[in-house]
Amino acid sequence: MFSDRFDQLVQALRILPSVGPKSAQRMALHLIMKNREGAIGLAHALTEATDHIHECSICHSLTEDEVCNICTSLERDDELLCVVESPADVMAIEQSGSFRGKYHVLGGHLSPLDGIGPEEIGIPYLLQRLSQGQIKEVILATNATVEGQATAHYLVEASKHLPVQMTRIAQGVPQGGELEYVDSHTLSQAVHNRMRIK
């Protein structure tokens, strides 16, 4: 619209999730018109991040080192492994402060229709990691989607021959949620996975 460079900026911003053409245009205008210093800082931060952040060689989460600080921590439980779909899931669990084990990031979930099988998300490497004998329990924390459930089921079946306890994160009614607003699948999971209190 204004120039080729402006159009390039708009197109570059559109790679972000949930950013359509109008949102990208508003962001570009804001950066150019109202916050050039912020735009320069953003460009620098993006360059630094893409140059220095990569996958941990053990868990496949994000790190600037060969091995992330969670994998190298002596204060974490080496016998407890939480399997998640993405580094964002690691961040969410870490923010809860409820887990002191280690992680394995799949980098996605099984989706045969999209050509994503066990090899594409590194399941053979995970099974190899489990076969080393150090890990005693695996918490499957894949998403509560059809693909996430299928991935969890596949992992349970694929690890049956290993001496590892497999558990699944609880699913059901959220804290503070009212039953009338909870979808039927979530309610079904909550009833099925109910816990004894007396």
TrEMBL record:
<keyword id="KW-0863">Zinc-finger</keyword>
<dbReference type="InterPro" id="IPR023627">
    <property type="entry name" value="Rcmb_RecR"/>
</dbReference>
<dbReference type="Pfam" id="PF21175">
    <property type="entry name" value="RecR_C"/>
</dbReference>
<dbReference type="InterPro" id="IPR034137">
    <property type="entry name" value="TOPRIM_RecR"/>
</dbReference>
<dbReference type="Pfam" id="PF02132">
    <property type="entry name" value="RecR_ZnF"/>
</dbReference>
<dbReference type="Pfam" id="PF21176">
    <property type="entry name" value="RecR_HhH"/>
</dbReference>
<keyword id="KW-0227">DNA damage</keyword>
<dbReference type="GO" id="GO:0003677">
    <property type="term" value="F:DNA binding"/>
</dbReference>
<feature type="zinc finger region" description="C4-type">
    <location>
        <begin position="56"/>
        <end position="71"/>
    </location>
</feature>
<dbReference type="InterPro" id="IPR006171">
    <property type="entry name" value="TOPRIM_dom"/>
</dbReference>
<keyword id="KW-0234">DNA repair</keyword>
<keyword id="KW-0233">DNA recombination</keyword>
<dbReference type="Pfam" id="PF13662">
    <property type="entry name" value="Toprim_4"/>
</dbReference>
<dbReference type="GO" id="GO:0008270">
    <property type="term" value="F:zinc ion binding"/>
</dbReference>
<keyword id="KW-0862">Zinc</keyword>
<dbReference type="InterPro" id="IPR015967">
    <property type="entry name" value="Rcmb_RecR_Znf"/>
</dbReference>
<dbReference type="GO" id="GO:0006281">
    <property type="term" value="P:DNA repair"/>
</dbReference>
<comment type="similarity">
    <text>Belongs to the RecR family.</text>
</comment>
<dbReference type="InterPro" id="IPR000093">
    <property type="entry name" value="DNA_Rcmb_RecR"/>
</dbReference>
<keyword id="KW-0479">Metal-binding</keyword>
<dbReference type="GO" id="GO:0006310">
    <property type="term" value="P:DNA recombination"/>
</dbReference>
<protein>
    <recommendedName>
        <fullName>Recombination protein RecR</fullName>
    </recommendedName>
</protein>
<comment type="function">
    <text>May play a role in DNA repair. It seems to be involved in an RecBC-independent recombinational process of DNA repair. It may act with RecF and RecO.</text>
</comment>
